[in-house]
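Self-study notes.
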Amino acid sequence: MKVAAGTYHTYALLADGTVRAWGSNDYGQLGNGTITASSKPVVVGGLSAVTTVAGGSDFGCALVGGQARCWGNNDYGQLGNGTTTDSLTPVTVSGAGGYQKLDLGAVHACAVNGTTPYCWGYNQQGALGITGVLQSTTPVVGTAFGAVDILIARNLSTAIIRGNVVIRNASGDTSLDSLANGRFLTSISLPMGSITYCATEAAQGAVWCSGANESGQLGNGTTTQSATPVNTGLTGAVFVQSGYSTVCALKSDGSVWCWGSNAGGMVGDGSTTTRTVPTQVKGLNSGVVSLSVGITHACAVKADGTVWCWGSNNSGQLGDGTTFSRGVPTQVLL
C-alpha cells in the first residue's frame, strides 16, 4: 500500500495493484473518466499490476510493467504522450519505458530506466535536465543529471541523489546545494510552495532545512529565513516532505511529525496554531509505513493497510466522504 498526495487530490496504490483517487477533478486527475470531484475514493480506470503511483499539480502517473501511464491536465505535455490534450483516463507515455522509478513535479514528470533519467512536461528551471526548450511532450534523457540513484521531482525543479549525496540540482538553487554539502542524505524535499528545502541525514536521521521560514517551516523555533541549513532537532527520520508552507517527516519508529503553517489543521495536532518546531501528529505515534504531503493536506499509510489524512479538505482530498477540514487524521473510506 502506498499513498501519493497531489495538490488537492490524493492517490492510493492498493495491495491488488489497482489505484484509488479522491479530491479535485477539474482536469480528470482522478482518472475515472469524469471531471466530477469526489470526497470518496474512486477507481482510476484501466490500471492493474501498478507498482508506483505519483501525484502532480492536476495530473497523476503510474508505472505498469515498466511503462508510465498518466492522466489529467496536459497543458505542458506532462502526460508524455506527444500531445497537450487532457485525458480523463490513463494514457501510455511515449517511448520504450523500462522504468523502475517515477516521480512528479507540479507540471513535469521524471522516470528512471536503470541509471538513466527521462523527463517530460514543463522545463522551467531546467526541470527536465535539458536546455533550449520550454517543454517536451515526450520523454527526453536528462543529460544534465548524469547517472541516477534517487530522483526527486517536486514543484518546478528536479534533484538527483547518487550514493546519498545530491549531485545535481536542476533549478540551480544554492539552498539545496548548501543543504547537501558534506552530508549523506536519505531523502530530500524540494519545495511545493514556499522555497524551503529539507533533508534527512543518513547517520542519525536528523532533519535539516533551509530557505523560507515565514510560517516556521524550518522547524528551528523561529520564523527567520536561512540560506544555510538549520537543524530541526528531530532525529530518527527516514523521510521528509513539504507542502506549501508545512513540512512533515516520518520517523523510523513509525511516528509522524509536522511543523510550519497549521492552516486547516495541516500540522495534525488538533489545533490551527503555527508550529515552529516538529510536533507529533495526533494518533500517528507508531505503525506508519508511508507518508505523502500535498499543498495543504497530508496522508499516511499504517502497517494494517489503512490510510489516514488530515488538513484542508475543500476538494474532498482527505477522502473521508466530507469536505470538512480535519486537524487530526481521519480515515479514508477505502
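Second protein, same conventions, sequence then structure:
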Amino acid sequence: MTIKLLFINAVDTTRAIQTLLPPLGLGYLASSLRENFPEDKLQFKIINKDVREEIEKFKPDIAAISSVSQNYQRAVEYAKIAKEYQLPVIIGGIHITVMPSTLTKEMDVAVIGEGEETIVELFRLYKQKRKFIKKDLKKIKGIAFKERNRLVLTPRRELIEPLNKVPLPARDLITIGNPTYMFTSRGCPYRCTFCASSRFWGRVRFFSAEYMVKEIKYLVENYGIDRIDFWDDLFIAHRRRLNDLLPLLKKEKLLGKVSFGCMVRSNLVDEGLAKVLKKMNFTRTSMGLESASPRILEYLKGETINVKNHVNAIRILKKHGIEPSASFIIGSPTETRADILQTLKFIRKSRLRGFDIYVLTPLPGTPVWEYAKSRGLVSEKMDWSRLDVDFYQNHDRAIILSEELSRGEIYRLFLQFKLEQKRRLIIYTLKNPQKIPKYLFGLYKQRLHR
C-alpha cells in the first residue's frame, strides 16, 4: 500500500522573501524516510499554499507542518484544515521546539528539535497502527503531545552524531534554482541575545568536508549549479574543515566551477582565512555586524567582538577580492538616537557591498524574548505575526523594545537606512548593470538568514 505524506511549509506566500529559497529542512525529512523505508511505497509532496486544494488533490495519509514563530498562526490554521480531513498532524520547526506549550488540539504530535530521526520513529509507529496512540508516543524521544488537555513532553532526543548520518535533502521534491544554497553545519558556538537558531540546534556540529563535496558535486552534475551559498549560522567556525575542503574540491575537479558565499563573524576574519576562502573561489560573504555602537554591540553579541573587528574584517575581505555585505539591528532597549546614527554613519563610510537593516525582534527562546516577556510585551497567546522581521511591512504592528525611542522615531530612523540602501543600489546599478540580479539575491539572502 502506498503511504502519502504532505509536508506543509507555513510561510506567507505574498512575501517573495519567504518563498525565494526551497525548504531544505523538509527535504531532509523526506530523504530520511526514504533511506529508512526503502521497500515502502512512499509518496511525498511539499507545498506552501493552497492547503485545502492540495489535500483534496493529493489525498495524503499524514500532514506534517513546519513553521517559524512569525508564521505560527498559519500553521495553526493549516492544522485545522488537515483535521477536517481527519489527517494525523505533525508540527515541527523552531517555534514549537522552543514553545511546545503553544501546541493546539488539532496537532497530534510536535517534533522537538531536529527531526530526521524522530520522523522515522513516528512513521514507523503510524505504519503499525495507522494512527498515533498516546501510550506509544510516550516511548518516542523528542516529541510533545496533549493527553487529557495536558502537555506531555518526552525526554529530549540525543543530537544526531556524526552529522554525516543525515542523507542529502530530497531536492527532487522542491524547485532548485541557480544560485542555490546548502547547509554544512548545525548550530553556532556563539549565543547572540536575539538569535533563536543557536538555541534550536544546541551544540554546534559539522558535516565533513567529504560530505560537503559530495553535495556540491551532486548540485553541479544534476542541476548545473555554479553559485552556492552556505547558510550555516557560522560556516567558518571549523577552520580545519576549510583546509580539508580545498584539496577535495581540486580532486573532484570542482575548483573554479562554482563560486561560494557564506556567513562569517568579523572577529574571526583574518588574512589566513581570507586567503583560504579566495583559493576556494569564495566571492561573497555576509556578516551580522549589528551595530557600530560599542555598548549596543556588546548587548547584542557579547564581549567577544568589537567595532574594530568590523572595520578589519571589511578591509581584509575587500583586499582579497571577497565582497562583504552585512546586516544591522536597531531598537535595542537602551539604544539612543545617537547610537543608531553612529551605526548609520559607519555604514555610509564602510566599503560594504550591501547591507540590510532590522529592528530588534523578540523571538521565542532568546534572552530578548525573556526581556520582552518581563515587560508584558509578549505572551504565549499573542498574535505571532507581530514577530514579522520585515519592519518595513510590519512597522505599525511590530513589538517595540526601545525604552528611549517611540515607534514613530524608530520608523523614521529606519527609513534613513532604507534611503541609504537605495542610494547604494543606484550607484551599484550604474557601475555594474550586468551584476544587479546577483546583487539583489545577496540582499535577499541576508534578510532570509535572520
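Instructor comment on the second fold: The two ends are 42 Å apart (CA to CA).
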